[in-house]
């Protein structure tokens, strides 16, 4: 009887200890408080590292010259000074430059995504001669630095007469040699390998050809891969300045290129407007120009975020 009483007294203590342990560190069903604090602290820290430059640019872009020189004003400006954006808009020639940037970015990104999907589907579904060798060569194009191929490409494009033309971006993308095309081919290759072959076999028995199977079955099921590839390709083509400056020259310009020569363009514009006098640029105008140059990317991100998440949710497909 005494032993049973001692056991009954110890049981509540053990249960309390287990409850406290589960509350702090979690269990198989629920995450503990300490674990949640660690996860949220880590996420907040990582998020701050990425958001700090945006917050800094957004804050300084609305500051007047007096706010920039005032040591008491660090984050919040005394007023929302929009003239910085008006000046940056004129310096960047924003409307026409944005149109050209979308022109030389969207078309190669679309072509690269479409061609990469065809190549990835071919590697995933067909037994080609020297398939592994060809696939290895495709991956090797990603390992080779693009700077090594820039001069030969320039000479080749110059012979073709497409320097200063969008075809210098569009032609490599149409042949699977666009900017980082090997990554997108690998994405589609892995994704199409995950798709059940039984669906394609059933369509083939019903009389569908390979192209119809690709368009009617493979493409709708690979929407997440298309979204991911297009977004990455769009951002990489948008941010590319070295190849754009080399292949486009003075014929075409983009927002990142205009941002590189922002200070010189500002001084030139003010020298013309003020009769040769030189006016130095301040940090508020520079930050406003930077915000305008990345604003289209932010808009694209917020528009496509929902589709991206829905595409990832729809990608829970088991292969056979």
TrEMBL record:
Coiled coil: none
Predominant cellular place of this UniProt entry's protein: membrane
GO CC annotations on file: plasma membrane
Keywords linked to the UniProt accession: Cell membrane, Membrane, Sugar transport, Transmembrane, Transmembrane helix, Transport
Residue ranges of domain ABC transmembrane type-1 in the record: 98-304
SUPFAM superfamilies: MetI-like
Superkingdom field: Bacteria
Entry's transmembrane regions: 37-55, 100-122, 134-157, 169-192, 213-238, 284-304
Membrane topology, from the record: Multi-pass membrane protein
Alphabetized InterPro entries for the sequence: MetI-like, MetI-like_sf
Gene Ontology biological process terms, A to Z: transmembrane transport
Gene3D superfamilies from the UniProt entry: MetI-like (1.10.3720.10)
Subcellular location field: Cell membrane
PANTHER family xrefs: ABC TRANSPORTER PERMEASE PROTEIN MG189-RELATED-RELATED, SN-GLYCEROL-3-PHOSPHATE TRANSPORT SYSTEM PERMEASE PROTEIN UGPE
Protein family membership: Belongs to the binding-protein-dependent transport system permease family.
Official protein name in the record: ABC transporter permease
Organism of origin: Halolactibacillus halophilus
Lineage of the organism: Bacteria, Bacillati, Bacillota, Bacilli, Bacillales
């Amino acid at each position: 009887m005494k032993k049973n009483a001692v056991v009954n007294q110890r049981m509540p203590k053990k249960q309390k200890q287990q409850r406290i342990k589960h509350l702090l560190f979690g269990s198989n069903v629920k995450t503990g408080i300490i674990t949640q604090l660690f996860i949220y602290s880590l996420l907040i820290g990582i998020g701050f590292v990425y958001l700090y430059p945006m917050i800094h640019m957004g804050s300084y872009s609305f500051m007047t010259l007096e706010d920039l020189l005032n040591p008491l004003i660090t984050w919040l400006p005394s007023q929302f000074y929009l003239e910085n954006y008006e000046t940056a808009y004129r310096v960047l020639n924003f409307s026409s430059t944005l149109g050209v940037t979308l022109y030389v970015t969207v078309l190669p990104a679309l072509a690269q995504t479409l061609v990469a999907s065809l190549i990835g589907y071919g590697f995933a579904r067909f037994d080609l001669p020297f398939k592994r060798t060809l696939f290895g060569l495709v991956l090797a194009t990603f390992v080779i630095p693009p700077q090594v191929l820039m001069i030969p490409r320039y000479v080749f494009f110059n012979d073709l007469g497409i320097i200063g033309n969008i075809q210098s971006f569009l032609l490599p993308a149409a042949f699977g040699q666009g900017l980082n095309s090997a990554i997108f081919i690998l994405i589609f290759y892995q994704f199409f390998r995950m798709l059940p072959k039984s669906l394609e076999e059933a369509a083939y028995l019903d009389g569908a050809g390979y192209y119809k199977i690709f368009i009617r079955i493979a493409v709708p099921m690979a929407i997440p891969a298309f979204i991911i590839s297009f977004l990455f390709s769009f951002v990489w083509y948008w941010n590319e300045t070295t190849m754009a400056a080399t292949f486009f020259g003075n014929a075409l310009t983009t927002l990142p290129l205009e941002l590189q020569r922002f200070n010189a363009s500002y001084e030139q514009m003010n020298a013309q407007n003020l009769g040769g006098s030189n006016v130095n640029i301040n940090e508020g105008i520079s930050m406003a120009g930077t915000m305008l140059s990345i604003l289209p990317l932010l808009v694209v991100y917020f528009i496509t975020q929902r589709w991206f998440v829905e595409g990832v949710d729809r990608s829970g497909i088991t292969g056979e």
